[in-house]
Structure formats: C-alpha cells, structure tokens
Amino acid sequence: MLPASVAVAGPASPRTGRLAWLDALRGLAAMVVVFEHALEPLWPEARPLIKAVFDPGWYGVLVFFLVSGYIVPGSLERRGSVRAFWISRFFRLWPLFTVCVAGMLLLAALGWDSLHIWWDTRPAAMILAHASMLQNLLYVPNVANVLWTLSYEMAFYLLLTAMFTLGVHRRGTATALGFAAAAVLGAGLLPVTLLSAGGAARMLTVVVAVTAVVAAGLAAMLYGGRRVRQAGAVAVAGTVLLLLAVNQGYPGPWQGLFILATMFAGTTLHRVEAGLLGRRHLVWVALIPPAGLWAARDEPGMQVAIVAAWLTFAAGTALRHRAMPSWLTWLGLVSYSIYLLHPLLLESVEFFLPRPSDVPLAVRLALLVAVCAALLGLCALTWRWVERPAQRLGRRLIRRTGRS
Fold first, then answer.
1. Alpha helix ranges (H) inside 80-171
2. Band of the pLDDT at 189, cuts 50, 70, 90?
3. DSSP-assigned letter for residue 182
4. pLDDT score at 6
5. Around 399, how many Cα atoms within 13 Å sit in the side-chain half-sphere?
6. H-helix segments, 47-81
C-alpha cells in the first residue's frame, strides 16, 4: 500500500465527512492489488489475458500514488514542522513494515517461501536498504513483492521535505511536469542500475553511501541552522534524483519517473481544490495522463490502468461530499495492512497449491474468498495492535516535541 498521511477521526473507526472519499479510494485500490496478486497462485491461466487488456496492479498503485500525492504534502505544510512530519511518517510506516518483513522471514524459515539468494551473499546491503525503504531504488530485491512501491513513497517524502526546506514546495505543478517530461523524453536514454550493479562490494558501498547521505541530510533539515538545513535539502534531493535517473531496476526508468509525476500531480489537485492555486493549473496537470499513455504505448494493459486510475480519482473527487459506504472506508482504514500482509497469505497458498490449474476453478474461487476473509481478520488485528498504537505514540511524541 501507499500510505496516505491522514489522521483517523475516531480511535477505532474509519473517517467520516470530507476525507472519507480518500479512504474509499484506498480501500478499493488495496483490494484490486490483492486481486492482481491472487491471479498467479489461484488463476494463472487467466492472468495474461486479464493483464493484456487491464493491469489491475498498476491501477491499484496509481490510485494509491494519487491519494498520497493529494494528502501527504498538506500534513507537512499544515504543521510547518519537518520533525513532526517525519515522526508521523516513521510511526505510520515502519512498525507494520517490520511485521511484513518478519512474516516473510518466518515463511522462509518454514520453507514456504524462498528468500532471494542475496540474503546469503549480501545480507548487510539487504538489511540496510530495507531499513531505509529505498531498496528498490538501490537495486536490492524486495523481501515481499509489494515493498517496491514504498521506495517511491520514500523518494516522494524526501523530495517533498527538501522542497519545503528550500521554500519551493509550492512548485508542485512544475515538478510534476518535469518528471512527466523526463519519463516521456529521457527515460529511454537513462542507464539502469548504473551505481549498484557490479558485485556485492560495490552494491554495499552504494547502499552505505546513499543511506549515510540521506540520514545526514535529514538530520541537517531536522536540527540544523538555516544554511545547514538548505545544504541538507540539496544533498537529499540530489541523491534521490540521482537514484531515479540512473539506478532504477524494476519497474523501469519511465515508470518510476511517471510515478513521481503522478504524486506531484495529486499535490497540485489538492492545492487547486484548497484555493491555493488557480484552476489554470488543472490544464497543466491534465498533461500527466497523456504522457503516461504515450510512454506505455507498447503496454495496452497499463494504458487502460492509467486511464482507469485517473477516472477513479476524478470520480472520488466529484463524490467527495457524498456519504461513503462504511465497509469501503473501513477497508481504506486498514489498507496499509491489506497491502503489506496479503503476500504472506498468498505465498502460503502458492506453497500448498503448486499446480493451481489442476484444481477445479470453483475450489480456487472458494479459496480466494477464504483468503480474503482471513486477510481482513488479520488486518483488523494489526490495525488494533500495531498500526493504531504506533500512530498514537507518534502523535504523543509530536505533541511532546511541540512543547519542548
């Protein structure tokens, strides 16, 4: 999942009111991603046919990226505190991320899932890259297949923080257009995994160097004086842009750049709605989807996903003042758990069902229903015992730092 940074209205209930539509979108997107990943272990014969005309995985993550781009910058600008923003981000992301990684390691210990060979040959790089959540931009294999999106979330947060520190955070429209132009015009010329490829020692050097620069830059922005903060912002932004330009592996240069364009487009949409930008900016934002369609001209399934994601977000915006179904907003409330935990169940299904095509389709559909029921039950528990307590702790620390 791509976790939007929005507070919960009540201690245990989904949001109601003007932000409920965002939860509804996240809930829908999360379940579409589950469907995408359920195809391989439960309905592999249909997977290529479906993805040829509509890529559900890309649809789901693009909706998530639009939601994050729409809502996350406001949480930073509303507080006006980089420190409070990163406390919130840490307690929103890392606790459940740790649960997901631990769950995948447990499956590997049980023999239900095979860890990537690099866990034996490059353990330090794997651990450090995942701790930074930049593993996908460092060409480090993800412990769970869904974790790649969090690297782009992290890149967005880091760029957003740097722009806020430098006082250029209002230039989201130009930033979105810049990333879109790079995706269309330059992505085919960009090198892939230029920094990290070349052996274990080189990869570890790059991972350590990037982590050190990002950590030092964040510390500078959090605690330094004006010039130190600005230097930290330049270092962090430059590092992230370098990784995006020359070190992406999967999903590829143009897709990664288009993801950032999509997120900053979401930021512009929010600012237009809030009256912070004129409606003429909508004309510029309207150029982002066609840029993606042109870049994906050889991938019709992804083209349909791009159109569907933007239409879904537009429909959500149009219906934002309407009451949303409570079950859908609840799915949005636990969407981060849905996103991170569903691979654990599907990996288990794949272990026990190595040849799904030999099993009657009705049985596989019943198994899918059972997996979804188990997943939602598990997500209710992780929301109750992991996500909510972590977010409460984060809010307490933010209040404490605000008084200090």
1. 82-110, 118-121, 123-132, 148-166
2. confident
3. I
4. 38
5. 6
6. 47-53, 56-79
